Amino acid sequence: MAWDPKYPAFGVIKIDGKRVHLYSTRDSYTTITCDRPVVNAMWAGSFLNVTLDNKKVRRYSSRDSYSTI
Predict the structure, then answer these.
(1) Got the DSSP string for 10-51?
(2) pLDDT, tens digit, for every residue of 14-63?
């Protein structure tokens, strides 16, 4: 299942160690948890690109589905 368009439309991402919080409103968010610390996360259209501390980039097409690029 793809991302709900409200997440990339709102566009706010907060990195918290191994977690990434994706906001859909000022007070509402969903969380992705990674196995390594996150150093960067950004929207690329309807995909979320998450860079880990080992320099690998995960491209999330939904909360539970990603590929390593």
Answers:
(1) H--EEEETTEEEEESSSS-EEEEE-SS-EEEEEEETTEEEEE
(2) 999 999 999 999 999 999 999 999 999 999 999 999 999 999 999 999 99
Which residue matches tokens 């793809």? 2
Q: Are 29 and 43 in contact (CB under 8 A)?
A: no
Amino acid at residue number 34: C
H or E segment and range at residue 57: strand 57-60
Distances (CA, A) of 13 to 18, 21, 28, 42: 13, 6, 12, 7
Positive or negative: CA dihedral 46, 41, 12, 15 = positive
Q: To 10 degrees, the CA torsion angle through 33, 34, 37, 40?
A: -80
